[in-house]
């Protein structure tokens, strides 16, 4: 019997992820983009955090983050490297109607030590919340990948990204409601056709049909649903896309979380004894390019007051990459 090329391709994918993953299309067909895509249901993404970030000169921006303990969240370094205050929105679908709201001046931010704002390498940061998150059906942590899966590529599996970013390239607003899109992870080799600077520390998402992350989504999660554990796993942090726009079909680029498990684990171990991390997901024991990324920030920059965030998106600063 002759095996079709489509079946061979599917078998290759299954073998590549070594039985840890599968094409779990039952969670939904490829849906509308965050740019004008599907509205999230209440409690669908309880780990999603909205960040209203104030920088110097009364400049505000909006980013996303992922709650990984009751005291810490992961986000993009480019979102918070110049933050002088941050307001955290937890547990809400309506952007300005969170279940828990907290604000801090002089936020405690831990940028990755090798973060490079010119190349966007190592675009990842940890933020300590000013008070503990109060867990409920609306506020939960997202599970981190296990150390044993640190070399899994996740190529060609469906993944979900969410945020309050712009709904299309023409919009002057970020979304009032949390939105999400399901697309396939694209291999780094394919992604390099669009971004020559892609590193093994990046993970890319296909945006066929214009379904993509957009300005205001930076720092937010890329999630793989592991059907064996029936659990959502954080595999990426939204980093950048093409300057030409978010609906042009170029891949969305994320920071690959599995590349930073050692850093997160070391950070956790150094602070657990101090009582700073009380409810972080424990990591299972196991073995754990040349074009400048003038990337578009997915963090929507807004030169207005906090209350006006989302009404107008000024100074989007789209470079080839940062969202």
Explain this structure.
The radius of gyration is 18 Å and the shape is globular. Strands 2, 3, 4, 5, 6, 7, 8 and 15 form an eight-stranded antiparallel beta sheet that branches. Strands 9-10-11-14-13-12 form a six-stranded antiparallel β-barrel. The protein has a single domain (16-317), classed as Thrombin, subunit H, CATH 2.40.10. Mean pLDDT is 77; it is low at 1-33, 273-298 and 300-319. The chain is built from four helices and 16 strands. With 323 residues, it is mostly beta strands. One of its GO terms (biological process) is proteolysis. Residues 34-269 form the Peptidase S1 domain.
Question: Keywords, please?
Answer:
323 residues, Thrombin, subunit H, eight-stranded antiparallel beta sheet, 10% helix, globular, disordered N terminus
Topology:
Elements: H1 5-16, E1 38-39, E2 48-54, E3 60-67, E4 72-75, H2 77-80, E5 85-90, E6 100-105, E7 108-111, E8 125-128, E9 158-163, E10 179-186, H3 188-191, E11 202-205, E12 221-226, E13 231-241, E14 252-256, H4 261-272, E15 300-302, E16 321-322
Signal peptide: 1-19
GO molecular function, one term: serine-type endopeptidase activity
Domain Peptidase S1: 34-269
């Amino acid at each position: 019997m002759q095996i079709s090329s489509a079946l061979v391709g599917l078998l290759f994918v299954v073998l590549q992820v070594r039985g840890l993953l599968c094409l779990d299309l039952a969670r939904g067909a490829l849906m509308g983009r965050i740019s004008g895509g599907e509205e999230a249901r209440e409690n669908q993404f309880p780990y999603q955090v909205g960040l209203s970030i104030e920088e110097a000169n009364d400049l505000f921006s909006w980013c996303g983050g992922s709650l990984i303990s009751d005291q810490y969240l992961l986000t993009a370094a480019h979102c918070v490297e110049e933050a002088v205050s941050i307001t955290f929105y937890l547990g809400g679908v309506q952007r300005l109607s969170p279940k828990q709201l907290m604000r801090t001046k002089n936020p405690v931010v831990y940028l990755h030590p090798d973060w490079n704002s010119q190349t966007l390498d190592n675009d990842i940061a940890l933020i300590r919340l000013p008070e503990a998150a109060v867990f409920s059906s609306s506020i939960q942590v997202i599970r981190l990948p296990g150390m044993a899966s640190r070399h899994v590529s996740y190529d060609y599996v469906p993944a979900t990204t969410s945020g309050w970013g712009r709904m299309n390239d023409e919009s002057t607003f970020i979304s009032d409601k949390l939105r999400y899109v399901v697309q396939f992870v694209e291999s780094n080799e394919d992604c390099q056709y669009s971004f020559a600077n892609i590193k093994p520390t990046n993970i890319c998402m296909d945006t066929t049909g214009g379904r993509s992350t957009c300005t205001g989504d930076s720092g937010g999660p890329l999630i793989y649903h592991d059907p064996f554990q029936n659990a959502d796993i954080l595999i990426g942090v939204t980093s950048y896309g093409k300057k030409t726009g978010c609906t042009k079909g170029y891949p969305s680029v994320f920071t690959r979380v599995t590349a930073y498990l050692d850093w997160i684990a070391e950070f956790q171990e150094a602070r657990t004894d101090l009582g700073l991390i009380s409810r972080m997901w424990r990591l299972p024991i196991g073995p754990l390019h040349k074009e400048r990324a003038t990337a578009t920030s997915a963090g929507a920059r807004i030169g207005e007051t906090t209350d006006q965030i989302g009404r107008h998106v000024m100074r989007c600063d789209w470079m080839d990459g940062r969202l």
